[in-house]
Amino acid sequence: MRKMGVTRKFLTSLIVFLLVSTPVANAEVVNYDYSVDAYTEFPNDTASSSVYITADTQHRPGYKLSDVYISWEIKAGDKVEVWFWDGQAEELQAFSITPSNTSVRNYKVTPPAGAATGQIVLKSGSTTGNRYAWIKKFDNNYGDTAIFLDPTIEDDPDDPDDPDDPDDPDDPPAGTDLSGVIAGINEVKGAINGMSSGVITELQGVRNQISSLTSDMNQQFDAVKSRLDVISDDVADIKDDVSVIRSDVSTMKNYLITPRSPSPLQMNALPQPSMDSSVPDLSEPYQTPYTYNRDETTFPPAEFGPEPLPFAPDPEVMPHDEPLMADAPTTINEPLPRDNPRAIDPVTKEEPQQMDPVNMEPPHAVDTPITRKDSLGRDNPLTPQTPLTPTPPIAPGG
Q1: Nearest 5°: CA angle at 333, between 327 and 339?
Q2: Are β-strands 65-73 and 131-140 bridged in parallel, bridged antiparallel, or unpaired?
Q3: What is the mean pLDDT of residues 17-37?
Q4: What is the CATH number of the domain that holds 112?
Q5: Cα angle 271-272-278, degrees, rounded to a multiple of 5
Q6: DSSP codes, 183-235
Q7: Which is more confidently placed, 249 or 182?
Q8: Which domain holds residue 49?
Q9: Which whole number is the average pLDDT over 363-384?
Q10: Is residue 40 part of a domain?
Q11: Strand locations in the chain, DSSP E?
């Protein structure tokens, strides 16, 4: 039961993941009314950068840049670069090119893995004149496409190869005006984009409903799985208890059916104490004299130097005292010979004293107890005296 529940949950999660993560067949195409370009007219310009592009305007996780199409109108020696960052604003490996063709449209650049944001950068060379580099469009990993406008390229009067420069005598005649056709195509494109947006909105609604339904199903499956896990744990506990009871019953059965014979009670004898009545040896070992192996002490020779400097010497002249002649070192006499240790007489053991025997005196006879002939009786209680009669008071005038 548990395995079947886990399998159903896994299949449901897999189906929902495929529905949510798989891009729709009709991807979204967004036309922006601005250009993403880098422009400079100064030579040896370090860097001129454009605005940033992002794989998703809502910055949702999982959206990455897949293809970026760039164009340029530059001078010889210019460099075009595209910088990339991931979703955590960490800089990735940039694309860099120094093209030999100074006029290119829709050059495809493949971003590095994980790129979510990009920017085009233009670095000019030593040639003077206007130069442009811009991002025409890009695709993300969900098939969405973003299209930007081309920048307005101003006429460069210093460029003899510009066909739109009226001052150039060798320019070809102007072509047919196709602005009306382009406007019609843009109108049709806008209508198609509107229809695509409606279809995408409907599909997003269906996707949201499927996601809600899948979430409810997952919650129900989780509740059922939790209940089954509790039941499975209870069954496992009961199985363990039954195994313990079965083992105890088997042990009791084996004990009861095993025949046994009576055996006498074994007791070890008590230990018997032993005593040694011999007298230990009281003699001492032979005292050998101690021999010293130390070398005789020698003093180092004395070295005398000049006397200490005065406390407040003369600032101009500071003469030193004449060195004193040191006395000849004293010769140490030969060391006195050491006396041998005095011989100690051995200790002789005295004879043990003879103890006099103790004569026990006979016990004293106990006196005969005194026997009272007549028992003492209890005395009669004391009779209280007659209370005193008060003297009558003296009558007045008597």
Answers
A1: 155
A2: antiparallel
A3: 69
A4: 2.60.120
A5: 140
A6: HHHHHHHHHHHHHHHHHHHHHHHHHHHHHHHHHHHHHHHHHHHHHHHHHHHHH
A7: 249
A8: 34-148
A9: 76
A10: yes
A11: 29-31, 36-40, 48-49, 53-54, 65-73, 79-85, 95-97, 103-109, 117-123, 131-140, 145-147
